[in-house]
Amino acid sequence: MQPSGRHYVVVRPLFSEDSFAEQHERINRTRKTLRCDTNRAKNAARSLLPIIGWIKNYNIKEWLLGDIVSGISTGLVAVLQGLAFSLLASLPPGYGLYTAFFPAIIYFFLGTSRHLSVGAFPILSLMVGAVVTRLVPDGGPPANITGFEGLSMEQQRVLVASSVTFVMGAFQLIMGLLQVGFIVMYLSETLVSGFTTAAAVHILVSQLRFVLGLDFPGVNGPLAIVYTLENVFSDITNTNVADLVTSIVIMALVLIVKEINDRFKSKLPVPIPIEVITVIACGVSYAFNFEKRFNVVVVGEMVDGYESPIAPNLEVIKESAVEAFPMAIVGFAVAFSVAKVYSVKHDYTIDGNQELLAFGVSNMFGASFRSFAASTALSRTAIQESTGGKTQVILTLFFELKPSIDLGFLLEPLPRSVLGALVIVNLKGMLMQFRELPFLWKNDRTDFVTWVVTFVASLFLGLDLGLAVGLGAELFTVVCRTQFPRCSLLANITGTDIYRDRKDYNSVSADLNFPSSRTVLFNQGASANFQRGLEVRQPSTDTSEDNNSIEGLDQPIDFSGIPIQVNWNTELPANISVPPVNIHSLVLDFSAVSFLDISALKGLKATLKEFLRIEVDVYIVSCDVYIMEKLHQCSFFDDEIKTSIFYPTLHDAMLHILEKHPDHGELEKVFTVICKLSRL
């Protein structure tokens, strides 16, 4: 190749796949075998315990102080968010401290992200709360489950939350062992946006009873948001003014400070930890005795230190397994997305499968110590990174949470309305995702439909069913896009080996004017697709004729009475209407074909033979080498279909066709048909 300014010139022979293989021998690479040696054992240990890889490179002088400061700053937020999010899980606030402590210990050893702050996440907390209130409702008897005997309602709820968290972790662990970390790819950004926005609305509505100081039982299941709003408005005359005023003041102050953090983040050395305002609120509540003077509901008695481990309840696991699976997916998807952002920023890699293992074991371990579902929160992770945190240092965990667990009694006077206000303020980012709708409507109506369907389903059917409906809607749009592809007429751009839609360009070569392209989906009825798509007429500069040609591709054809093998060059029965097909060559572009199953192989082979029987030469271009291997393995080639029909590029095939049919120029009515396949 000789560069010449912004041009390049390539001089090479015209290749078919056979001639290319003769001149360029392919290396037969040996497949990896399962064998154990020292290096593989070390790599396996580093993969299972990522801490081994970075702890030996830990720079104590440069990193330790930053990690300690980061631990204290993040710990303050983790403590208060743990208290607040435990209300979403319908649990006593103190158990939120366990969620921020125990899972983080395991993630320190198994996680691949150095900046992720592991702990409670509002959406997961809400999903746990739905299971808790279903099995242990506020206004009725608990479910008939062995193991509830002799337990208080609080203990029953803790048992349910820890059991559903255990099975959620088990799902994550199994997916990690099966190496299915790629599953997060099926959760598109649009779907996640619609789902998290609906979850934010659920959380907002669920916190109204704390902000307004109302007392009514929680609701779960389909239409739960409707019933909750009904309870709020029917009981709104009983609003506790002290709770309402406290919540408004807290929300206003937190919003103002967060806005300052966002606007001046480049100038501030660390974000202002506005969550410290809860400590002030706790002191004011204690000094003025809010609980007795204004009938304000406070956090109350906190857990005293650590409690002994418990085993999950098998009956609860059976009752909650269906809800636990979407929780496992959502928890991993959120954590992986946040971890990926900071891994790119700080130039290190994360492993999706190892993250599944880490969160699976973390949640199972935490559930044994009465914590509920853990993932991450963007706000905590942002604080941990922006305050100088470099790694997941275990020392920061003790700076974060151990004093809070030991001294939790100091937070007992804190009004629950303050925690509710903090939860609502932290929803700002998710609720602002509504602003995406005008952009989606203008630029991608399909993604707009996916967003709206996911949002509406999650809002009214519940988060678990809503996620399933959203996935179904997304897969449906993919199928629709595959089944209704775009059709265009391809032509060669003068002086190049590039082919584009001939309607979009005037510089079309007269010698290589091959005027038809159709995207087809190979299946058992593939030959019918070809019969409909190969009406070829003499090219003309009149674009209206091209439009008529394209429209003719989609006209219905009566195939009843057609024999299995049809000679299109003979006279057909009077009741059969089939467009005349006068072509000498068919080129199939396999550049977008990534896999080939047995059904597609059989359909392709039958279709190629149909064309060969009516003396239409068939060529396949840009076929992946592994597809070629599959064709050889499945005995695709025989006396009729040979390897010589395969060409490395579309231009090679076109030049070969010109050599074979030199008299078929632009005045000839017979032209080559180019078919670009989207998949097989």
From TrEMBL:
Task: Tell me which domain of life the UniProt entry assigns to the organism this sequence originates from.
Answer: Eukaryota
Q: Which CDD domains match?
A: STAS_SulP_like_sulfate_transporter
Arranged from A to Z, the UniProt key words for this protein are: Membrane, Transmembrane, Transmembrane helix
STAS domain residues are 586-657
Citing just one GO molecular function, the answer is: secondary active sulfate transmembrane transporter activity
Pfam families, alphabetized: STAS, Sulfate_transp
Q: Which Gene3D superfamilies match?
A: STAS domain (3.30.750.24)
- Record-given protein name: Solute carrier family 26 member 3
Membrane topology type, per the record? Answer: Multi-pass membrane protein
What organism does this protein naturally occur in? Cyprinus carpio (Common carp)
